[in-house]
Amino acid sequence: MPDTTSPTNSKIVAAYREYTPKSAARAQQAKQVFPSGLVHDSRRLDPYAFYVDHAKGSRKWDIDGHEYIDYYGGHGALILGHNHPKVMEAVHAQLDKGTHYGACHELEIRWGELVKQLVPCAERVRFTSSGTEANLMALRLARAFTGKPKLVRFKGHFHGWQDHVAFGVSNHFDGTPTPGVLDGIAENVLLAPPDDIEATRRIFESHDDIGAVILEPTGASFGQVPVTREFVTELRKIATEHGVLLIFDEVVTGFRVGPGGAQAHYGIMPDLCSMAKILAGGLPGGAVAGREDILELLDFEVAEAKGFEKIGHQGTYNANPMSAAAGIAALELIAAGGICDTATAQADTLRRKVNEAFEAEDVPWACYGEHSGFYIFTNPGNLPITPTTFDPFAHDHATLKGSQKGPTITKLRLGIILNGVDMSGKPGGLTSAVHSDDDIAATADAVRAAVRMLKDEGDLTA
Ligand SMILES: Cc1ncc(COP(=O)(O)O)c(C=O)c1O
């Protein structure tokens, strides 16, 4: 297979360059400003990413004038699609009233009440500006509450980019710190294999200083490497037995798996959870929520009454009025029902149609996922699989995530873009409640057309 390390001599790459000249120029310009010309690692694309001018509903348009069906979905924030009219109305109204009061405001209460109403474990809520910050606070709360320093995490699970969670996600699976992270932090993080309850139990049994365990409750990268419900159920049990706090990272799953997130879907109550993305309706925002006796550690009066030292917490943009307005509008729509189910149903159809396309093209790849997520497994090891019956549980995280590397994947993405669809580099994406049946059918056609381009290029022999 002519899978060269550089796709520079590729017809697909040449076609992409020809299709996106304005983006090419902007990418050059950006390199003089940002490392790699980027502001977020996962937006990287060879030879360069295209630049977006505007978006609406399920679509976005690049600066060269091309329209795309979008499955990036604002990195998962946009289950209502781009510019949902109700969210826009709330944001515009708030814009005229002020973007930041440096003071308490009524919207923050309504927003927090909605979180309490929807999220089972949310006895108390504290807003942050991002999911990374929400997890940072969840871990600090857990250590302070239990008086125990160690954190158990699962290999491949992503929790943002702060020091405690920076390694063991896509590299450093031996638990050593990535550059800039202190050894002392890495020494207090124990990495467990995902979906292996016996290995996790052994870690719990061999350490008496574990304060918390955190996971993406449907598996790494929103189920790209899924975990079973049984695993999460058992994890809840053994965490309680060992006095370890269970933290669900619901930054993606929250308000997406269902209005009450993965915890409501499973019927499993974590001690704490973190949220972001959909929470703030497409604007920046996050929150940590959970048991009242844990969130009390942030409470001035309780700390004084009980005589403990309070955890400090600031944040210029915590529950800022713009994000609160968008968040309220989004959560009210989600609470009314139908949104999460529609997005899930569209992803279901998309996975089926893409697999039918792979079978029609006789390509041993598979489109899989749960809820409103989908991933394309490009089968780097050439395993004997059937697209429509592919079982991700039969493969480990290295196999499932290894799928996303290499020039063929880059060219697959470019081919999909050239056929009017944008998805993330996994490769995969997230559906929204506004992806239409036509969008889904056109997307399966685009993937099939991209596969044919790869065949034409000699990358796929089938
Ligand atoms: C599961 C999960 N946790 C945490 C984060 C970090 O959130 P943020 O990007 O808002 O800092 C992300 C972001 O993609 C995520 O997917």
Topology:
Layout: H1 11-19, H2 21-31, E1 52-56, E2 59-62, E3 67-70, H3 73-76, H4 85-97, H5 106-118, E4 124-128, H6 131-146, E5 150-154, H7 183-186, E6 189-192, H8 197-206, E7 210-215, H9 220-223, E8 225-226, H10 229-241, E9 245-249, H11 261-266, E10 272-275, E11 286-290, H12 292-295, H13 300-306, H14 321-335, H15 339-360, E12 366-368, E13 373-377, H16 397-402, H17 407-418, E14 421-422, E15 428-430, H18 437-457
Parallel strand pairs: 3-14, 5-6, 5-7, 7-9, 9-10
Antiparallel strand pairs: 1-2, 2-3, 4-11, 10-11, 12-13, 13-15
Overall description:
- The protein is α/β, with parallel strands linked by helices and 462 residues long.
- The protein is globular and about 70 Å long.
- It starts with 10 loop residues before the first helix and ends in a 5-residue tail after the last helix.
- It has two domains: 7-82 and 339-457, Aspartate Aminotransferase, domain 1; 85-335, 3-Layer(aba) Sandwich (Aspartate Aminotransferase, domain 2), CATH 3.40.640.10.
- The protein has helices at residues 11-19, 21-31, 73-76, 85-97, 106-118, 131-146, 183-186, 197-206, 220-223, 229-241, 261-266, 292-295, 300-306, 321-335, 339-360, 397-402, 407-418, 437-457; strands spanning 52-56, 59-62, 67-70, 124-128, 150-154, 189-192, 210-215, 225-226, 245-249, 272-275, 286-290, 366-368, 373-377, 421-422, 428-430.
- A seven-stranded mixed sheet has the order 4-11-10-9-7-5-6, sandwiched between helices. It has a four-stranded mixed sheet with strand order 1-2-3-14.
- The structure holds pyridoxal-5'-phosphate.
- Pyridoxal-5'-phosphate binds next to helix 6.
